[in-house]
Amino acid sequence: RATAVERESEVGRLRAEAARRSAEISHLAGATLPAVAERLREGTGAADVLAAVPPPSDPQLSRITHTFAATVEEDVRRVMTIEDEYRAIREELEAAATEHDRFVRETMPAAISRLREGRSADTVLAETDLPHHPALRVPAESFIRELALSERRAAAAQAASAKALSRVQAKAVQMLADLRDMQERHGEEVFGDLLKLDHSTSQLGLMTDRLALLMGGRSSRAWNKPIKMESILRGAAGRIAAYQRVRLHCSTRTAVAGFAAEGVMHLLAELMDNAANFSPPIDEVHVYVEDRSAGIVVTIEDSGLKMADAAMRRAEEAVTGRVTDLASLQGTRLGLAVVGRLASKYGVSVNYRPSSRGGTGVVVLLPLHLLAQHREPAPHETAGRGESLAGRGGAARGVPVQSSSASRTPS
User: Fold this and answer.
1) Pairwise CA distance, residues 265 & 388, whole Å
2) Which is one Pfam family of this protein (predicted)?
């Protein structure tokens, strides 16, 4: 019987111990370990955390607690390391993106502009704040050096072309002078043939001047005295193939200053040529001139097909002078690009509009600073001036100029 009592007592003790351990395990799992994990995530060391919590009475539970604390501490350390690395990488990427954006928007355009001004690659690289990141810096340096080489080659080719064209221009001017001399020396039986040669040479002069201006060169002729507007119109019309279709309506007695006369003449010749080329070959091109308070207004009207909106926008863009890249020009259609360069150089306004004749009209405003006080030429000057202008377009002598009574205000 004593044995049975002892057994019951032992069973009771074991049950109590089991209950105590169960409660301790529950407290460990539900309170101690979460608290340890929270403190560790806050950055407290494992030793300090374990010292602050009551240790379990069971050695195994104590070992579990220490192992748990060490594991969580290591995991927290790894997470913090990963977060630091992620933050550093993100900041580096943001800095690289900012640097790339500044490089694309500011640095490279400025470097390209300096290269096109003629500076060397070494000078531009020394003046340029290149990106620090090798992935951007290395290709940027290579690009600047390659572009500098390309610009030098382009400038050399352009200079050589302009020099060669200047020789052709000089030869054309000499041929015109020789033809004028022949027209005076020979009789009527060859005058017509000489006039045709004169006109063909004038067209050649227009084409060489066109190319020279696009290459950065100059026109083949210059005038040291004012030229009457009527003579400007005749000279311009005489340089184009379809000069016989051009009808001039000029009532002004104003003259264009000598420094601008050749440029204005070339500009008007290009616009007349464009109007004649894009209108039916049997239709006339009418040119009207008016005096206005802001200067002289020249209107060129054709009766061809109305220009489409897209073509109108391209033409307006071309005559602004902002198109400076020769690679953007379309084939042989270079006239409007020349108009744009001359208009920009002399401050001439060129605008397109629908023509009252059904085609396209071009309105050209020659500002006051291009005009000179008109002076009636003396009799001995008249012939010489007429011949010189005819020499740049001898066929202009066949272009009729209507008086003020025959002219009309273009609509």
Assistant:
1) 13
2) HATPase_c
Structural tokens at position 140: 């940027």
Indicate the burial class of 398 (C-beta count within 10 angstroms; 0-12, 13-18, 19 or more): middle
pLDDT of residue 326: 63
Helices 379-392/188-214 angle, 10° precision? 70
Helix axes 335-346, 309-318, angle to 10 degrees: 50
Whether 328 and 308 have beta carbons less than 8 Å apart is answered as no
Q: Name which of 257, 269, 255 is nearest 346 in CA terms.
A: 257
Query: Would you tell me how many other CB atoms lie within 10 Å of the CB of residue 96?
Result: 16
CA dist., res. 207 & res. 6, Å (int) = 129
- For the record, the structure tokens of 346 come out as 């002399």
Give 367's strand partners. 295
Neighbouring residues of 235: CB distance < 8 A, sequence distance ≥ 6: 227, 265, 269, 389, 390, 392, 393, 396
Superfamily of segment(s) 170-402: Histidine kinase-like ATPase, C-terminal domain (3.30.565.10)
DSSP run (H or E) holding 22: helix 2-27
Taking a C-beta distance cutoff of 8 angstroms, is the pair 234, 186 a contact? Answer: no
Contacting residues for 222 by C-beta, under 8 A, at least 6 apart:
258, 259, 262
Q: Provide the 8-state DSSP code for 360.
A: E
User: What are the residue ranges spanned by the domains of the chain?
Assistant: 1-132, 170-402
Give tens-digit pLDDT for 56-114.
777 888 888 888 888 888 888 888 889 899 999 998 888 888 888 888 888 888 888 88
Pairwise CA distance, residues 325 & 334, whole Å:
12
* Segment among 50-54, 69-73, 315-319, 401-405 with least mean pLDDT: 401-405
For 87-99, the pLDDT digits (tens) are 999 988 888 888 8
Give the 3-state secondary structure of 364-400: EEEEHHHEECCCCCCHHHHHHHHHHHHHHCHHHHHCC
Q: Residues in the chain, how many?
A: 411
Distance CA 263, CA 339 (A): 9
